[in-house]
Design brief:
By secondary structure, this protein is α+β, with helices and mostly antiparallel strands. Helices cover 20% and strands 35% of the residues. The protein has helices at 16-26, 95-110, 168-179, 241-251, 278-281, 287-292, and strands at residues 6-12, 30-37, 54-61, 64-70, 81-87, 114-122, 125-132, 138-143, 154-160, 183-190, 203-210, 213-219, 232-238, 262-264, 270-275. The two termini are 27 Å apart.
Length: 302
Amino acid sequence: MPHQYIVPNIWCQGNAEEVGRFYSEVLPDTTSEVAARYPETGLLDFQQDFAGLPLMVTVTVRDFRLSLINAGQEFAPNPAISFFLMFGPVGFGGPEGAREALDRVWAGLADGGEVLMPLQQYPFSERYGWVQDRFGVSWQLGLFDEDGADPPFVMPALLFGGPAQNRAVEARAKYAAVFGDDFEAGDAFPYGEQTGPATPDALMYSEFRIKGVPFTAMDSGVEQDFSFTSGVSLEVHCADQAEIDRLWEGLSAAPEAEQCGWLADEFGVSWQIVPANMGELMEHPGAFERMLQMKKIVIDEL
């Protein structure tokens, strides 16, 4: 499997294995496996109940990787970062196959969950719906019917609402500046007129890529009482300390949020800036305890 530069991490409240099994049953071509476990010793007081239990579960949806972080009750995902699933005829054996797959996945995700936008026809899509599953993770499902095109199946979707309202254009510019040549701007469609809290210049929909990883970004067209949290974070796999230092300096905007490689940017989006070989480094004796004392990860000290 090709290296994935940015891996979305979903905060799970002690049930990461259960969540992973659920996704492997509901999503097409999906597997889950325990990728790391908590050590038996050296844990902080609030982590003692997790000794020896899974720390991270890797979920692979087709070729796209998600990580489930097994932790406590501190955070939970919300619709500020959802996952857009694009069902196209190329990837699902034709238009009928794509529609059947979409409806099947929708039924699984909606079972025990909450429908945020009903599955139906909209001006922008023949068939689309937005659902929050039983574990609080949000998914947008859309039918893509452009002949010959094969869009990415999974795209993390950033929704700028609440305190981040109308900042999607600014965020795209910021990420372009921070990631430089690794940032590729895609289509961007403004609302064109005042739509709820969204100004005419705010983004109704946009796409971009960071080192090949696809994202969508939009400003909310309705008032929202939530915004970005650590419930879903974006883990960047850096080649070396110089890249860690550069991204940390460019993104971190909340010193109080800096811990164990985590940071929050000026829009509230949580990032984890880590070495690409973090799993290997964490096998060093005492590395977990040393990491707990860090804000920015310093490779030579692990």
